[in-house]
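Annotated sample (chain length 160).
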Amino acid sequence: MKSVRDEHKQAIDWLNEHTDQKINIFAIQMEVWQIGDSSCAPKFNIIAQPNDWAKAVKNSTSAPSELSATKMLQLEFWTKLKEYVQYNKFQIKLRKARPQHWYDISMGSSNAHICLTINSQTNQLGCEIYISNSKDLYDGLEAKKNEIESELSEKLVLKP
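Output written by the structure step:
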């Protein structure tokens, strides 16, 4: 069975990050299933999708509810971050802000993404790079650990 090649998935991820919010691009793998003597039926597997697609669908179908004070602060923080990035014309395309303690940012590759977090109980911000199955990428960053720590003036925590 043929699958979507990694470079095509990366291209779709890039397009979803660099087009406006009205355009959503998917990569879908279709299978044909048959159980016993039943008619054949298609099964669709999503290979690539817009970053916040699943959450947007879930939020649009769930009943509206009031946000807690913490959720309101989270939403305000991520909204202001997005406005700051847009105002200063940084070369980062951020998705829609949501009332949650985390915010994912695409790095233009399906191999990794940045996750920002807010801990309102300890008044701390976090920034993590999630690498999903690329030992080479991890090893490359680990090799530059001292240089990155020097630039940030912070110690890094590596979790293989």
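Annotation: The domain at 67-160 is CATH 3.10.110 (Ubiquitin Conjugating Enzyme).
Annotation: DSSP finds five helices and five strands in the chain.
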